[in-house]
């Protein structure tokens, strides 16, 4: 593990997310029309969830950012979707979309895309409204707390996901392992953890602001999962299309593990 690259930039992290991470800018850059990485991720997550092997009553996403689309394929396999984020602006963006506010980000193209993958693009509006109904809560979270949802306490979840989040909160391997432990504490026995992030990424850009990320490789992630006792670990990686200087990584990973 090493944070490398962009050594001439001021890299932000931690509390900076509350004032320097701008949800609309991030969404436009990473999830706007024609962004190729967004389509690749939707394709992979659809293939993952469409096996039907990952299902249950309640799914928790930690560090959701302002993003809805990563869980469209998961929605039909769970009764409740609980979102969470550290930054108030990201939570506000999620609430705006749930409440169908006029200035909410337009996720309709993402729902149309996934409905087409499902084989019936005409169902996208039904899928969108079902998704809104299943968004049962949007919590404040901090993955560095023993209970990342503190002060909220919840029954253990059937599935916990965290996409493009955990490495971005950590400075070193020890911190990363501790965060994995905290996240795993929210899973029931037999529950499934799904992580998605960039391989070897040391920084990413939101507007003119650069944020730090702990650079990890396959062995780093698997070692951290094994350290907290997770089993049935499966690793998947795929090339990410070029992101025009937004990230210093060109590969993403998804890892699935069971508690």
From TrEMBL:
GO terms for molecular function: N-methyltransferase activity. One of its GO terms (biological process) is methylation. Gene3D superfamilies: Vaccinia Virus protein VP39. It comes from the Eukaryota. One of its GO terms (cellular component) is cytosol. Pfam families: NNMT_PNMT_TEMT. Keywords: Methyltransferase, S-adenosyl-L-methionine, Transferase. InterPro entries: NNMT_TEMT_trans, SAM-dep_methyltransferase, SAM-dependent_MTases_sf. Belongs to the class I-like SAM-binding methyltransferase superfamily. NNMT/PNMT/TEMT family. This is Nicotinamide N-methyltransferase-like.
